[in-house]
Amino acid sequence: MTVLAAAMALLGSLFFALGAAFQQHEASGAAGPGMLALLRRPRWLIGTGAVALGGGLHIVALSAGPLIVVQPMGVASLLFALPIAAALHGRRPAGSELVAAAVVGVGLIGLVVLIPPTAPAPHMDDASALGLLAAAVLTALTCFGLAKSIGGAGRPALLAVAAGVLYGSCATVTRVIVDGGGGHLWLLAVLPIPVLAALSLLQRAYAGRHFAVAYATLQLTDPLTAVACGALLLGEPLPTNVTAAVVAALVAGAGTVALARTTPLTG
């Protein structure tokens, strides 16, 4: 089942990448990243449909495997997304971008390899689930506030952190719903709120035209949030070799910083 989960997550990452590239192209070309304006742009809607399909495959993956296996597989979407986004903007991806993206990939793959592939069935009470979502929203609001006073690549990076924390927390709750014995179904009515908030934050990050750093930051923050939540709240195992895991995380972080220094995409 772990292989199936990884395969579904990998396929979902391809659709996430395609959707993210279309969304970024439209968000950076619009007068503003407001959702109402973007809803009138057909290619943004196509991109959102691709992201939704990727999300469906992601849910299937979560029902077949633990967060520690499924979430980090999203790193593949970074390697897919950069060439697609560059092509939409009429240029080839720079060599420095691809090298930095590969460094991020090596770091996250290292984390996946170090994490045990099995995990106990997820259990979480209602109060813990709501507390997790509330903490994620508070963190996102803090990042959003800080982003207002920061320019350059820092702004889209902070907005992407906010979106990644929301997505990672929602993935944790989703795993409890789909593989936790059938309970907590009422949370399906709550999850769209942080998901839509994350989507809106991400469009603001994309509008900054630093797509590489925004998307890399998202792909780093999302799995790290989910892995931390899985370990702290669901009892999923962490890497046994802590030193190697820290090195892998630092490598992924260094790749993200390198992406922040690359040439931004233009609208």
Short summary:
The protein is mainly α. The chain has helices at 2-29, 35-38, 42-64, 67-70, 75-88, 95-114, 126-147, 154-179, 192-207, 211-233, 242-260.
Overview of the molecule:
- The chain crosses the membrane at residues 53-86, 98-115, 127-146, 158-178, 184-202, 214-235, 241-260.
- This is DMT family transporter.
- Keywords: Membrane, Signal, Transmembrane, Transmembrane helix.
- Helix 5 (75-88) runs antiparallel to helix 10, helix 6 runs antiparallel to helix 11 (242-260) and helix 8 runs parallel beside helix 10 (211-233).
- Helices cover 75% and strands 0% of the residues.
- It has helices at 2-29, 35-38, 42-64, 67-70, 75-88, 95-114, 126-147, 154-179, 192-207, 211-233, 242-260.
- It is mainly alpha-helical.
- The mean pLDDT is 81.
- The protein has one domain.
- It is built from 11 helices and no strands.
How many helices? 11
Q: How many strand segments?
A: 0
Task: Report the oligomer.
Answer: single chain
Strand content: under 5%
Characterize the overall form.
Answer: globular
Structural class: mainly alpha
The arrangement of helices and strands along the chain is: HHHHHHHHHHH
What percent of the residues sit in helical stretches (DSSP H or I)? over 70%
Count of folded domains:
1
Low-confidence stretches: none
- Overall mean pLDDT stands at 81
Q: What's the story with the biggest beta sheet? A: none
**CA radius of gyration:** 17 Å
Q: How widely separated are the two ends?
A: 42 Å
Keywords: Membrane, Signal, Transmembrane, Transmembrane helix
Organism: Planotetraspora silvatica
Transmembrane segments: 53-86, 98-115, 127-146, 158-178, 184-202, 214-235, 241-260
Protein name: DMT family transporter
